């Protein structure tokens, strides 16, 4: 038998494909960010996770959003193409499968005024008590809804779910700025109050939405049980609007990773960054960050995502945003950036830019991976700037990596050096992150330090310890 300190041992075995800025991001194809307990839900307005980490009301946390996007990009590459059930493509004149709730309601095929594509126009009451214009689905497997829709006046889309015990729940996607609300068996997700007369490309993992709504009222175990036996019974639309490309699929990873990339394009500030808008108390009264701080890890993982969005779409907007994100790396932590200096000599990009500096290892390495991705994919002068930042960071990492070796595991940060406090040992799952990062660094840099450290740190997970004197 073998003894392990972590719940999973998914380290690479055998020859591995070379890391590429256009490829799978580390082992993120195994991640499901939206299922994490500290994800309140996936916003219907922004299409990205809302985090409850450090703030129970929820906030948009750049690291979590980037990881969500990177996981779906990686799954887009690694998983088989999804089966798709077309519910409406706008090309059929026969619409009898759509059931009208009354004689005043209408549904018809027509050509879109701007694109000459076939679309379906619908008109019925907007009241959510109205059953809506409904199409039966009866689907247990293909549980991701995608559609293009434009509401001419107020309206909504409803997914009717039937649980294993026969209960009916309704998930309403409504023109509202409210994030999520559960009332009895009606679950509401806002998709924006200002979205009338605008095309919306709506992609929802219906069972993720259902699960997050159930946890507002039910225990985790009960909500999981209710979700596991549920099926999509029908899709309903209300109000006056136009729809096209209505489908159910097993997954829609490309849509979801582009939602995350588009979030970063929309919300990049004038400094090129994505500020974290909640307080972070790394060590209360010693290392605290007020709302508005930047994270080098957040910048780096956003860059990794934006580079991949460019690869997938060939849209330069993503690469331009990635280039702008470099500016934060030059600003000292003490002046609102992420740059720290160790011994006034070594450049370190801070996940948490505290004073005194914290020097969190995994966040620093993730920032370096983002810089590597950009230097490989961008053109001059952005590629030269990314390369300079990357090379400076790698020089630092080679000098400081041994400081994180405890002899039995690793340190999460260097607070014991900078703040004179007890060491902050990395729990085993974080130690495993350090090891996975070393697997990647071995590919990027031939310095034997990385290979030797990798083997030693892997040994710690099996109970090995460094020798004593």
UniProtKB/TrEMBL annotation:
Membrane topology of this protein: Single-pass membrane protein; Single-pass type II membrane protein
Class in the EC hierarchy, top level: isomerase
UniProt EC number: 5.1.3.17
D-glucuronyl C5-epimerase C-terminal domain sequence ranges: 268-458
Annotated keywords: Isomerase, Membrane, Signal-anchor, Transmembrane, Transmembrane helix
Gene Ontology, cellular component aspect: Golgi apparatus
Record field: catalytic activity: [heparosan-N-sulfate](n) = [heparan-N-sulfate](n)
GO MF entries: heparosan-N-sulfate-glucuronate 5-epimerase activity
Highest taxon, organism lineage: Eukaryota
Location in or out of the cell: Endomembrane system; Membrane
Pathway entry: Glycan metabolism; heparin biosynthesis; Glycan metabolism; heparan sulfate biosynthesis
Cross-referenced InterPro entries: C5-epim_C, C5-epimerase, Glce_b_sandwich
Gene Ontology biological-process annotations: heparan sulfate proteoglycan biosynthetic process
Residues covered by the D-glucuronyl C5-epimerase beta-sandwich domain: 117-240
Family per similarity comment: Belongs to the D-glucuronyl C5-epimerase family.
Protein name as it appears in the record: heparosan-N-sulfate-glucuronate 5-epimerase
